[in-house]
Amino acid sequence: MDVFGLAQRLPRVWYEHSLVLALWPLLPLSWLFGLLAGLRRASYRYGVLSSHRLPVPVIVVGNLTVGGSGKTPLVLWLVRCLGACGWRPAIISRGYGGSSEQVRLVAVDSDASLVGDEPLFLRRRSGVPVVVGRDRVAAGRALLADHPECDVIVSDDGLQHYRLQRSVELVVFDGRGAGNGWLLPTGPLREPLRRLAGATAVVWNGSPEPRLVHATGLLPQFDMRLVGQRFVAASGAERCCDPDSLRHSLGDRKLHALAGIGDPSRFFQHLRDLGLEFEEHPFPDHHRYSAADLAFADDGVLLMTEKDAVKCAAMITGEAWVLPVEALIATSPGGVGLLATILEILDGRTPA
User: Fold this and answer.
1) pTM for the whole thing?
2) Which of 103, 213, 254, 333 stands the most exposed, by the fewest C-beta atoms within 10 Å?
């Protein structure tokens, strides 16, 4: 297979958990990528490049792999838990998928094509201030200028944005783990696995990968599960239904499931676990939908993720439902909770 043909298959090939022969020509690029990534991180660590600390603690929720791994549900969980503990959280994000090059405050009616789908979804679901910007230091400063009451910032992604100093780093992996374990472009990793040694904790959105569990050593690890059993109408109407009601209302109509997230199979498996049968329609993460993309559902019923709904709702002409999900975080094997670990750091104590 030629390199150009392989480029179309790279994400799938990366997660075959082995270095297939066709990837070997890319190895020199991975070595170069690793060298440059290491030099960049060292430049910030030793003061060659300047980093900046905001006047409030920063919690970074990120990943070592490219693409989505479940960070957004974890950000929502964090914001909800911190708020319940008396903190006043806010969110900053790169705004990937949006066209804005400026720091921008996200409103509930913002255009997803401008601010990005995940920031808009986070703003609507969390109810806390959200600011997007390529420069997260500038985004954080703008957020605090507009909302001085905020006393902790959660950064959606940004693990490699070393210009922004942080108090807590949470690294999320989904069931695909680290794939073949190689750096871009030979594999899915943005940084080597040894980078995990500097994190606060690892969160598993799926079954932990034994190789990674070993690589993380004594680093606290937590299992995350996404739960959701009731659908809400994509039209925004105050309507909801459960899987049984949905199945009985279909008649001779076909059920379609759409997902444009990092790993669409996660959403499809969730639907199957609810006892539903459907036709799968996976799209790339942050896909910019057009009406033609949804034409397959004109004579059926469409199911989608919340993130896709913020972009697709205005294009839907037929019946469509959205599945809201919530993150549940288990305690570590030692009985310590993730929230307790974070609060100890925010309060200035060494985690137990």
Assistant:
1) 0.93
2) 333
